[in-house]
Each structure stands twice: as C-alpha cells, then as structure tokens.
Amino acid sequence: MADLDFVLRLLLAAGCGAVIGLERQYRSRTAGLRTQALVAMGAAAFVLFGSELGVGQGSLQIVAYVVSGVGFLGGGVILRQGLSVQGLNTAATLWCSAAVGCLAAGGLVVPALAMTVLVLVVHLLLRPLGRLVDRAPDAHAETIGAFVLTVRALDEREQEVRELLSDALESPDILVHAMSSHPDGPAEKGVVVLEAELLVEGDAAELLDAVLTRMSRDTGVREMSWRADDTPLEVRSRPRLGRA
C-alpha cells in the first residue's frame, strides 16, 4: 500500500470520527471531538498496520483486538450514580467510531461515511423520540427505590413470621437486599424486630401495602411499617395481641 493511500485512509477515519465527536462535544459529553477522532484514527492505524505486515489473517485479528480494546475504553466512561447508570450512549458511540475507523482502513469510503451519518441520525433523531416516549403516561411508573420494611413479632413466633415475610416478598418487582432481626429492647420483652432492606420497582406503596396486608393475618405479628428515605413513615399497625 502506498504511503499516500495509508495517510488518506487515516484522514478519512479521523474526519469521520471528528464529525461524530462534534455532536458529542456539543452535548458536553465525556468523549467529545478529540476522543472520537482519536479512537477512529487509532482503530484505522492498527488495522492498516496489520494489512501492511501482509500476514494472512493479521488484519482480522487486529480488528478483533480493536473491538475488545475499545470495549474496555468505553467502560471507563460509564458511571453509576445510585441506581442509575450514565455514559452508555457515549461508550456505544466510541465503539461506533472504532468501527468507522476499521471501515476507513479497509478503503470502504462509502460505508465509512454511511456509518458516520447513521451515528449522527441516531443521536439527533432518536433523542427526541426517546424523550417523547419518556413523557408517555406510564413512563415514570417503573421506578426503583430503596425501602425498609419492619415487622415486630412475638419472639416465640420469629421463625414462622420470618418464613411468612420471605414468602410475602416473593415478587419479580421486589428484591430483598438484606434481612435482619434483633430484640425489641426494654420497651417490650418477648418481642423481636425483623427488618428487610428492599429494592422495589414500580408502585412501592401498592406492593408493600399488599405485603403488610398479607402479614397482618398472622397472629404472631404485633406491628408493621415500611419507610423510604425520601418519603414519610407509613405505618400499618394492628391491635396488641397477647401471647399465643
């Protein structure tokens, strides 16, 4: 391959990456203009290097290494904040920029340009569509929150109440993070407190109230409540019961 052809393919890769990066830079994303251009150009350089060596399937092997390497690079821009994950779009865009670089390295000018245009179309046209879907009536119904469910039960019925609680929490929308128990203290002897740390998806009030309703049928349960950090304490109590 002539040196001029080598350089032109690198420039094509860098130019397509820069076009993709312009949109990311305008959105103030982590991987912007320079990062996208460098990823595309670097992927092209590696593939071109493999073809220059002229070793059988060397170029295809290098493409596979580029794919896995960019995957690790994309992992660096993915951030987790609480229960939400940010940076997935940026990581996917880096992967697409690497693909554009590989296409450019293969001399596939039209596919490289088409890939660049499609990446921009996805970001520019599907973004408003995604926001429109987010504004649908049920869009905010599927939320995830952390809650603590507390059950005060008779000490002698702890095992039965614990099993009943585990059964009541068996739901695809409820994830039990931890469950613990401790004596109620000097306030009332013979009573144990069970606490379950939960992650609830959807309408937490409806789901947890259903759990409390089911638990209230057991005579070993004295009092129940659930709470969240950002909501007031919701209490569902039953009258005091004597020992069974």
UniProtKB/TrEMBL annotation:
Say yes or no: keyword Transmembrane present.
Answer: yes
Transcription regulation as UniProt keyword: no
The subcellular location is: Cell membrane
Q: Which UniProt keywords apply?
A: Cell membrane, Membrane, Transmembrane, Transmembrane helix
Can you tell me which family this protein belongs to? Belongs to the MgtC/SapB family.
Q: Do you know which InterPro entries this protein is assigned to?
A: MgtC-like_C, MgtC/SapB/SrpB/YhiD_fam, MgtC_SapB_SrpB_YhiD_N
Give start and end of each MgtC-like C-terminal domain. 148-226
Q: What is this protein called?
A: Mg2+ transporter-C (MgtC) family protein
Q: How does it sit in the membrane?
A: Multi-pass membrane protein
Among PANTHER family, the record links this protein to:
PROTEIN MGTC
Say which species the protein is native to: Microbacterium trichothecenolyticum (Aureobacterium trichothecenolyticum)
Q: Which residues cross the membrane?
A: 37-55, 62-80, 92-125
Describe the location of the MgtC/SapB/SrpB/YhiD N-terminal domain by residue ranges: 10-131
